[in-house]
UniProtKB/TrEMBL annotation:
Keywords: Hydrolase, Metal-binding. GO terms for molecular function: iduronate-2-sulfatase activity; metal ion binding. The keyword Metal-binding applies. GO terms for cellular component: cytoplasm. Signal peptide: none annotated. This is Sulfatase. Residues 289-350 form the N-sulphoglucosamine sulphohydrolase C-terminal domain.
Length: 418
């Protein structure tokens, strides 16, 4: 069962206003109870209250928080911008070219002509973004209360995660970028409540969205029938610490030898008219394709490498950060002699990751002379295609998972995605 949809408040700025391309909209005209997100949560609640007697999976993706920055009142005005900590500053020469280009194409530097300048504006925008997160939190609270009332709380695993983050004013930017791999885009929440789990346990060590699939399969006592590269987090859910030496990976961007992949390509509709808030993004990709070239990152607890490459530029604005000293990723130390060994080690990790994961063989033979093998009707098989966490994260694999009925385990799953 899956739910989706969305609402947005109006963009009240004219095309000549420097705020027009910032995605900051007015509050929803609708009451919170009239929004698509609210109605979808209510539909899921009705399903839970129906007391389903067979194992189920509910996939509930919300539209917020997501640009345009907007949500219903009172959430829209619930965060005081003046009380927020400072945002990551813009204009660093250490950042890749797309930072300055986004600000140029969206005319964001013109925000300094407003009273209080761009710093005040971005704080206000960020406050609305946090308000939309509060709206999602409110909806999640409704869902959890209904789960408890339905009597399914002790037999259902609930997983909450996001597909990507958002600049939301950090670095003087808005929305996201296909080859942007900063933590504000790739470090997303992951919360799991499962019967037998340790209450309040926080895993400080690196994990990745890939891990949701094997974790869910193990909790449901299902044996995977596909190759995957995630790691089950069941032990961590039961109170164990993670692997402090683990590296996690993300990737995104497009290659100039595949122009059809770029947003705004004529084959996919071309560049929209200037009145579209996405006009600058697509125009930049078409005029400055290297600014969205392929990028891959490897992150440990202490360091992060973002390597960018393209047939036109073998090493295009790559980045390396010492996260212990620079958690906001402001000082790019890529190429500095004192970080040469760290850089080499992370590049080797990235090389091994691609070598070990770039190609897999199918588990089911697909002869060219006929149809692939089809499981017998009496075989309990769950067919599912995990959604890709984000364009800038490695995509998942479609999978068939065969249930093992030899051991009873809770098998209900509820995904809440924002």
């Amino acid at each position: 069962m899956s739910f989706a949809g969305g609402n947005n408040g109006p963009n009240s700025y004219s095309e000549t206003d420097p705020r027009f391309y910032t995605f900051l909209n007015e509050p929803y005209k609708e009451d919170a109870t009239e929004t698509t997100d609210y109605k979808n949560v209510v539909a899921a609640i009705k399903f839970l209250r129906s007391k389903p007697t067979t194992p189920f999976m509910v996939f509930l993706p919300l539209t917020k928080p997501h640009p345009p920055y907007s949500c219903p009142e009172p959430f829209y005005s619930s965060i005081n911008a003046s009380e927020l900590p400072p945002l990551r500053p813009p204009g660093s020469s250490d950042k890749p070219d797309f930072h300055a280009l986004i600000r140029e194409y969206r005319n964001l530097t013109a925000l300094n002509t407003l009273e209080g300048g761009e710093e005040l504006f971005f704080r206000q925008l960020h406050a609305v973004y946090l308000g939309s997160i509060s709206f999602s939190d409110f909806l999640f609270g409704m869902l959890m209360a209904a789960l408890k009332d339905s009597g399914l709380e002790d037999s259902t695993t609930v997983t909450v995660f996001a597909d990507h983050g958002d600049y939301a004013g950090d670095y003087g930017l808005v929305e996201k970028w296909p080859s942007g791999l900063e933590d504000v885009l790739t470090r997303v929440p992951l919360l799991v409540r499962t019967p037998g789990g340790t209450r309040g346990h926080v895993v400080q060590e690196p994990v990745q969205l890939f891990d949701i699939v094997p974790t869910t399969l193990e909790l449901a006592n299902i044996t995977a029938q596909h190759v995957h590269f995630g790691k089950s987090l069941v032990q961590q859910l039961q109170g164990a610490m993670g692997d402090p030496t683990r590296a996690v990976y993300a990737e995104g961007g497009y290659s100039t030898h595949e122009p059809r992949d770029f947003e705004g390509d004529a084959s996919t509709g071309g560049i929209p008219r200037p009145k579209s808030v996405y006009y600058p993004k697509l125009l930049q990709q078409q005029e400055k394709p290297l600014s969205v070239c392929r990028a891959s990152s490897v992150r440990t607890l202490t360091h992060k490498l973002i390597f960018r490459t393209d047939p036109l530029d073998a090493d295009h604005h790559s980045e390396l950060y010492d996260l212990a000293q620079d958690p906001q990723e402001l000082r790019n130390v890529y190429g500095l002699p004192e970080y040469a060994q760290v850089q080499a080690d992370l590049k080797n990790k990235l090389f091994l990751w691609f070598m070990q994961t770039s190609d897999v063989t199918p588990w089911v033979e697909d002869p060219r002379s006929g149809l692939p093998d089809i499981p017998k009707a009496d075989t309990p098989v769950i067919h599912n295609t995990p959604t890709s966490p984000a364009r800038n994260l490695p995509s998942g694999f479609p999978f068939d998972a065969t249930a093992d009925t030899s051991e009873e385990r809770h098998q209900d799953v509820l995904f809440f995605v924002n």
